[in-house]
């Protein structure tokens, strides 16, 4: 594996880069979105600007020094604003596997930005030696299932009671993965 850490990636409409302090307000707004909170239970229900500053300045700043850490802010070129996030949630170098997670601002959903960002990240990870890139999503999260299919991931099955909701109950998740090299 040739890990390089979170490096800037540019696509036609997006810049994927490290999340910076200047993104704190946008991150705060993004993490207070009801849909983001519904699908990512670990986020506090009233995410404050101060929490975003603390997280970016202390947690992310430290993690970005690790060449095994991959976490990008998705910046819309047209507005130069943080509109989403995509990261490697977990990885296993022995198995050459990376697990992706993403979320997007409601203001840009439906524009294909998630697909564009995920394709760029998959290509990068494959170039570094990752052979299996996977993602899972709540069975109700149809938009994420569509993104997974659009980037070439194949449905592998439904994992029963796989992850936790905000209220502590467990939900079923659909698992997708790509093991073939992208040709795009």
* % residues in beta strands: 25-35%
> Radius of gyration over alpha carbons?
16 Å
Largest sheet properties: 8 strands, mixed
Succession of helices and strands: EEHHHEEEHEHEE
Terminal CA distance: 22 Å
Q: Which class do the helix and strand fractions yield?
A: alpha+beta
Which fold name corresponds to the CATH topology? Answer: Aminopeptidase
User: What is the architecture at the second tier of CATH?
Assistant: 3-Layer(aba) Sandwich
- What is the mean pLDDT? 94
Q: Residue share in helices? A: 25-40%
CATH superfamily: Gcn5-related N-acetyltransferase (GNAT)
Instruction: List segments where confidence is low: pLDDT < 50 over at least 5 consecutive residues.
Output: none
Kindly give the count of domains: 1
Strand adjacency order, main sheet: 1-2-3-4-5-6-8-7
What report would you give on this structure?
- The chain starts with 8 loop residues before the first strand and ends in a 6-residue tail after the last strand.
- It is globular.
- It has a single domain (9-178), classed as Gcn5-related N-acetyltransferase (GNAT) (Aminopeptidase), CATH 3.40.630.
- The protein has helices spanning 24-31, 34-39, 49-63, 113-127, 142-150, and strands at 9-10, 14-17, 71-76, 81-92, 97-104, 132-138, 154-164, 170-178.
- It has an 8-stranded mixed beta sheet with strand order 1-2-3-4-5-6-8-7, sandwiched between helices.
- The mean pLDDT is 94.
- A hairpin with a 4-residue loop joins strand 3 and strand 4.
- The chain is of the alpha+beta class.
């Amino acid at each position: 594996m040739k890990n390089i850490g979170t490096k800037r990636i540019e696509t036609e409409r997006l810049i994927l880069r490290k999340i910076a302090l200047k993104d704190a307000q946008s991150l705060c707004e993004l993490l207070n979105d009801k849909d983001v909170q519904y699908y990512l239970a670990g986020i506090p229900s009233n995410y404050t600007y101060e929490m975003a500053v603390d997280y970016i300045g202390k947690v992310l700043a430290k993690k970005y020094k690790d060449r095994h850490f991959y976490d990008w802010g998705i910046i819309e070129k047209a507005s130069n604003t943080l509109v989403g996030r995509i990261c490697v949630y977990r990885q296993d170098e022995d198995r050459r596997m990376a697990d992706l997670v993403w979320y997007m601002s409601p203001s840009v959903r439906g524009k294909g930005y998630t697909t564009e960002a995920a394709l760029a990240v998959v290509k990068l990870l494959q170039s570094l030696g990752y052979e299996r890139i996977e993602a899972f999503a709540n069975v109700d999260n149809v938009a994420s299932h569509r993104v997974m299919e659009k980037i070439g991931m194949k449905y592998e099955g439904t994992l029963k009671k796989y992850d936790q909701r905000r209220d502590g109950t467990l939900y079923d998740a659909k698992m997708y993965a790509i093991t073939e090299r992208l040709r795009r």
